[in-house]
Amino acid sequence: MDATFPKVREGGQVQSMAFVIAIGVTDTGEREVLGFDIGTSEDGEFWTEFLRGLKERGLRGVRLVISDAHLGLRQAISEVLTGAAWQRCKVHTLRNVLSQVPKKQQPMVAAIIRTIFAQPTQEAAREQLRRVVEELRSKFPKAMQILEAAEEDVLALHGTAWRALAADLLHQPAGAAQP
User: What is the DSSP letter of 49?
Assistant: First the structure.
């Protein structure tokens, strides 16, 4: 789930509005748009109404939601999609971290951070995150503070934990080939 803020003409005025979207992954691994909406803000009330609308239209069996760390969205997920796991989007996390890195050095820092997500297990990813933070902390203290703070959320399901959930979603044994 995510939101963007396009300019919209409404009542003769142009204003930024929240365009929210939910994309689901089917049992066969195909992506499909579950729904979208436009509202005046991306607050918790709007997200809650959006998710309730999806459920009223038949959304069932949500096991995992990946999004940014927007507090209103996270609260709506826990309220409406009871029992669904949540994980912070790696792309949003990377953007947040890189916002604290000079433009010239962003490609190098991004490449180093991506080594975290390339690890085969959650523990290996956590160890790599700690190594990356230690390596880059002196040059980019604010960026590494953001990365460290995001550890639990961005690595909630990684490696074997992610494969086990995917296998469960696809009704396959955990050791079977993954989509």
Answer: H
User: Nearest 10 degrees: CA dihedral of 29, 35, 38, 43?
Assistant: -70
Residue 126 predicted with pLDDT over 80: yes
Q: CA 145, 132, 65, 166: dihedral to nearest 10 degrees?
A: -160
User: Where exactly are the structural domains of the chain?
Assistant: 2-88, 90-154
Question: Mean per-residue pLDDT for 157-165?
Answer: 56
| Helix (H) or strand (E) run with residue 39 in it | strand 31-39
Number of helices and strands (H, E) in the chain?
Answer: 8, 7
Give the count of alpha carbons within 13 A of 84, CB side only.
Answer: 21
36, pLDDT greater than 80: yes
Question: What are the start-end ranges of the E strands in 40-80?
Answer: 64-67
Distances (CA, A) of 117 to 24, 86, 141, 153: 22, 17, 21, 13
